[in-house]
Design a protein that fits this description.
Layout: H1 12-18, H2 20-32, H3 35-40, H4 46-53, H5 57-69, E1 74-76, E2 80-82, H6 85-90, H7 100-113, H8 116-122, H9 132-160, E3 171-175, H10 181-189, E4 194-199, H11 201-213, E5 220-224, E6 237-243, H12 246-249, H13 251-264, E7 265-275, H14 287-298, H15 307-316, E8 321-328, E9 331-337
Parallel strand pairs: 3-4, 3-6, 4-5, 6-7
Antiparallel strand pairs: 1-2, 7-9, 8-9
Length: 338
Amino acid sequence: MTTTTEKTVTSDRIQDTLYAFTRSQILFAAIDLDLFTLIAQGHTTLNALQEQLNLDERGLRLLLNGLVGIGFLRVNAEKGYSLPDDAARFLVRESDAYIGGMVHHCKRLYENWSMLTDAVNSGQPVGGAQSLAQLETYFSELVKGLYVSNYPTAQKLAKMLGIGSTSQNLEILDVAGGSAVWSIAMLEKDPGSRATVIDFPSVTHVAEEYVSHHRLEERYTYWAGDLEEMEIPNQMFDVAIMANICHTLGPVATQKAIQKLAKALRPGGRLAIVDFVPDDQRSRPGWPLIFGVNMLITTPEGDVFTRSEYESWLKGAGFKTVSLQEVETEVTAIVAEI
């Protein structure tokens, strides 16, 4: 006798996706009100928090319940509210690992993502192209949020490249360097290396703050401006970094940047590109393809590019070897040697 086992199909995955916004909105509100900081300061009861914030009791109570519901707060009948370890480290304003800036950035993204259908219809970012001043403001805020999450990855990349061991006394070019986190990690590995950061003027000021925090000021140079318009001396650098920038530039500008950096590197020099790289068929579910949609919403030309696309562009610019390696889950380093 043959039995057939029928697979039960549920709508759980669909419903989880539909209601995922509730978790984001609860966290956004908590950061807006600085609840995690207040609790860390000892205001651990509903009454104490209400006194600090002067809010409606019902509204605050239900928000706190929601934070417990999504696991961002713990509650004890006697001691009141307390913070899980990750909330205490990353969501308390006084913490050196505070990522409130990233939360605010994602809140703005959330508003844009609500207009995704409009972006699909037009093929252009919602709200139209941004002015240079708007872009500078956007990136100067964004890089502060990215610093904390990128620093451990930058350390892994430095180790992968052999900085301080097989590669020393380098001239490093950090393209669209943001907080300079990628080159900071390299200079910390090798005291004989120096770095140059290229970015918008307001963003290089942010880089200076982080470089100063790491006490590396005397080993940095800053070139404020746009890479596309900037002239870079030939064969000046041993390593160039393009981290989390190609997806914003788009295919044409990325290829031009690769060609420019190929000339800026000395013989044997390496270009390290860090980005979200989908499989060549763009058929594997995961963050790179989701992030591509974010590029539709926020940039006029941005996209995510496959291994074969990067290899073609790099080989076309004169790079002899190209290798890829994951530095984090779904974060890929493409390293090419000239």
